[in-house]
Amino acid sequence: MTRHTLTSHPFLLGFEELDRLVERTAKSGEGYPPYNIEQVGERAYRITLAVAGFAEDDLSITVEDRQLMVRGRQAEPEQERVFLHRGIAARQFSRSFVLAEGVEITGAALEHGLLNILLERKSPDRVIQTIEITRT
């Protein structure tokens, strides 16, 4: 049986990677930490993650193969602390976002328990290519 995908149309040549990106995005379904994505300019975006209790040293932001990875891991709490109720999540997390080609990270800041990651879509240079036809 033939597998039909988003890019299986014969006019969409070379877009197989788009299918992989859609599959990779669908797998990142956990809801912690909560986040917002905002458009803050014509070509600028901001991802905000709620990371209460995490310090700058507890967080890492990496980009590999157009996948933005935000990871958080807190140091072990002091042993003498006794919680009567622990409602603030202190678990480690990994949250990923797939970036379109040309989208770059321009900065990140941690303020009031919110991690803000700024992104910008760089304007691509338009290239017009003329192909010469040769006789064979």
Task: Write up what this structure looks like.
With 136 residues, the chain is mainly beta. The chain folds into two domains: 1-30, no CATH class; 31-79 and 86-121, Sandwich (Immunoglobulin-like), CATH 2.60.40. The protein has one helix at residues 16-27, and strands spanning 35-39, 44-50, 59-64, 67-72, 93-98, 103-111, 114-121. The strands form two sheets. It has a four-stranded antiparallel sheet with strand order 1-2-7-6, with no helix packed on it. Strands 3-4-5 form a three-stranded antiparallel sheet. A hairpin with a 2-residue loop joins strand 6 and strand 7. It holds the Pfam family HSP20.
Describe the SSE topology:
Elements: H1 16-27, E1 35-39, E2 44-50, E3 59-64, E4 67-72, E5 93-98, E6 103-111, E7 114-121
Antiparallel strand pairs: 1-2, 2-7, 3-4, 4-5, 6-7
Task: Supply the key terms.
four-stranded antiparallel β-sheet, 136 residues, Immunoglobulin-like, single chain, 2 domains
Number of helices: 1
CATH class type of the largest domain: Mainly Beta
Q: Please provide the ordered H/E string of secondary-structure elements.
A: HEEEEEEE
Indicate the proportion of strand residues.
Answer: 25-35%
What's the number of structural domains? 2
Pfam family, one: HSP20
Family: Belongs to the small heat shock protein (HSP20) family.
Protein name: Molecular chaperone IbpA, HSP20 family
Keywords: Stress response
